Each structure stands twice: as structure tokens, then as C-alpha cells.
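call fold(seq) -> C-alpha cells
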Amino acid sequence: MLPDAETAGRGRQRVSVADVELLELHTDLYGRLDARHGGGRFRSVFAAFLDLHATPLLHGAFSARRGRRLYGSVADAVLALASMAYDDQLPGLAQRYDLQAIRLAQAVGDRGRLARGYIHQARLAGARGDRDAVVTHARSAVFAAADAPALVRAYAAITEARAWALIGNPQQTLAAVKRARDAFSRASIGVGPRWLLWLDRPELEGQAAWAFAMAGLAVPGSQALQVALDMPEERTRDSVELLITGAELARLRGEEAERTALLKRAVEASRHLKSRRIVDRLARVAEGQPLHDF
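ret:
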């Protein structure tokens, strides 16, 4: 679909740069809180803020240039809210948020944010157990990100790797991880879309480790995990997920004592998280079930 021909607003309230900056700063803040405490703790507060602040802005008065920034910033906020809903195991709500954000990104022709929306759709398809749809959405993200910044291409490629791993294709998994690492290496440190600056080397390697674990590739998975363990301490939920991935890799290597120890650490680290998804993952992995959530 082509971008909207008109992105200017003709409402009564004048939208200022400060209005958009306030939205962006709140999205950054709640994104960090989500990573540290889980999506169920602050979701309703952030949703109330968006209803109070962002909705009137979309109906306000702004130029086409400011409209492009506003639409993109609202899309980022809504996608952050969708992530919180997904973490709180509310897939229907997450889907509605994702579709709103995809429409905003399409309106301004932002292919990077469109790729992010498709990645979210892949995640929801995984939650439904529709593995073929996961690959379809992941490939759509790669296509959308073709001309996007290198960091976006890395994000799309590592998502594709995880999708191939989910359906049990180790060769495609290895190839997609290589593409993700190559794209990440071409990205400048600290340079990229505001909404993706959290994608650092530990995060990328953590997702690679998950993909390798799902594909049954214990050796490259363990190597990726060692790099991922440098993840900042404040990203509590991601750190718990790394421990779960480590436990699965230990199982693949036949090291039951290490698996048990890692699961114990994951449970202890998750005690203060409000994340239904993590609780569910820990319960399933404790029962010996495979890591199937995307």
C-alpha cells in the first residue's frame, strides 16, 4: 500500500514539538520499566496516558512533516503497549494494538516500523501455534526492511532465524543468523531508529541462542549464549529468558545438573516480575516441555 497522500492534521489543538517529545520520552520510560518489571505491572497506566495525551494529538492541527513524526511516535507507543499485552498473555488485545500501529506506519511509509509490526505478528502467530504463519510474517518483515537501516535489517533477520528454527530447519536458521550478524556489524553503535536502540549485541546473540536451541544446535547456541550473558542487569525479563535458553541448551548437551541449576536461577530472578508469559514458560520448561513460544 502507498503512504497516505495527506498527513497534516486540521483539528483545533495545535500539536507542538514538546507534545511529541513528551510522548516519545514516556514510551522510552515505560519500555525500560517493562523490561525490568514485566508487562503486567504498568500496562494500564501507560494505556491511560496514551488515551489522555496521544489520542487528542492525532485529532489536532499539525503540518505534514510533524504529522509524519507524530504518527511514527504514536506507532512506537502503541507497539510498546502491544508488547506489554503480549507479556501479560492478552493476545487479542496485543493484536488490536499491533494493527493500529501497522496502519500508522503504513500511513507515513515507514518500512522499518512496518517490519516491526510484522515481527509482532510473527510473535502472536507463534503464541497461537501457527508455525507456518510465523515464517510468513517473519519473511514479510525481512522484505519490508530491505531498504531500512542496518539495525532494522538485523532485527528482521534474527526474527527470520527464530522462525526457521521454530519449524525445525537448522540450515535456514544458521543462514539467517549469519545475515543478522552481518547487518548488525554494519550498523553504527548507538545509531538507528529510536525504537530499536535496545537491540545491542547481547540481545541479538540471546535471540540467536534461542534459535539455535530450538533448531537443536547446541554448540553454536552455547557460544551465542556466552556473548548474550553480558546483557545489562536492568533488563530483568530478558535475563530470565536467557537462563531458560541456557537450561534448554544444557538439556541438549545432556547436562542435567546444569539445567537444574539454571532453572533454579531463572525462578529466583523472576520473583519480582509481573509477567504471565514468563511464569508460563518456567512452568512448561520445568515439566520438560520444549521452548515453543516465539
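The mean pLDDT is 94.
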